[in-house]
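Quick one - first record:
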Amino acid sequence: MTKNEWEKLYGILDNEHSTFLLEYPTMRNEKNKKIRGDAERKVNNSIRLSCTWIQKYGEAFNLLTGGDETSDFGRAIIWDEFVRPNYFGGDMSEFLEKIKKKIASMDKENN
C-alpha cells in the first residue's frame, strides 16, 4: 500500500470509529426502542463499512490481525472479536494507532 492509500484508509476508519463511538452508548442504554434500533443500525453499518475497507487492502488486514507471525487460526479469532460491537471500539482505536505508526514510518523512509 502507498502512503496515500494508508492515509485514505485512516480517514475513512477514523470517521466510522467516531460514528460508532457516538451511537454505541445509545444502542446499549437508550430506553426508547426505536432510538435504540436506529443506533444499532448505525453501529452495525460502521462496523460493516470498516470491515469492507480493511478487507479491501491485504496489508491492512494483515496489520490488524497480528502481522506475518500470526497463524490463520489466530487471525480468525482476532477478526471475529474485532467485528463484535463490544470489542470494536477499543480494537479500532488500537488499529488506528498502528496505522498512524505505519504512516510515520513511511515518512521516515522517504526522508
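second record:
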Amino acid sequence: MLAELLQTWPSAFVIKADGKYIPVDLSVNNPDVPVGATADAFEDFLDDFVKKNTASVAYGGYLEHRNLYRRSGIFNDEESAPRDIHIGLDLWAKAGTEIHAALDGKVHSFAYNVGLGNYGPTIILEHDINGIRFYTLYGHLSVKSIEELEIGDTYKAGQVLASLGDASVNGDYAPHLHFQIIKDIEGNFGDYPGVCSATDLDFYRSNCPDPNLLLKLNLMESL
C-alpha cells in the first residue's frame, strides 16, 4: 500500500540541483569504483563522473550490491552474514548542500551515529498520509543539522531540514545523503539499518520501498 501511495504522489525532492541528476553505478559489477579509496579520492571519482556527464548530482544505489562496506566492522562481524546490499538511495553532492524534507512530517528522532561506515548525524521524520504512517531517514548530515533539533519539530515538504556533512563526521564517506523510506521503524531511534545481508533482503525490500518511487529522479532534469 505504501509503495502505491509513493508512486502516485507528486514528485518530491531532498536536494535542489542546478543541473541534471545522473544515475551512478557503485555496484560490484562496476570495475571503476575505487573500493578502499579514501573519502577524498572517492569524492574525486564522483566529481569526475558528474562533470563528464554535465550533471549536478549523482544518485542511485537502491538494492545495489556493493563492495564499499568491506572496510567497516559495522557491516562485517563474525556472528552474522555480511551486510553489503544498500536499501536506501544515495545522492552524492558537496558538503554543506542543503537537504530538504521530502514530505510534510515531524521529527521522530535523531542521533549522531559514530564510527567508520556509520551514518554520522541522522534525522528520521515521521509521516502520516491518508492514514498510512511511515518514516523517512536522512543520513550523513552535518553536526549543526541536529544541534538545535527537537523531537516533534514539524517540517513542510520542501523546507530546509539539514545540510550534508563531510568525511570527518559522516562515517568517513564522500559527502552524500542517504535517503531511505521505512514502513515499520521497529522501535529504532535515530537510526535504522541502511544496508542488509542477502539473507534479510526480502524483509528489507518490503519494509523499505524504493525512495525513487517518491523522488522520481529518473524523470527529472533539474529542480
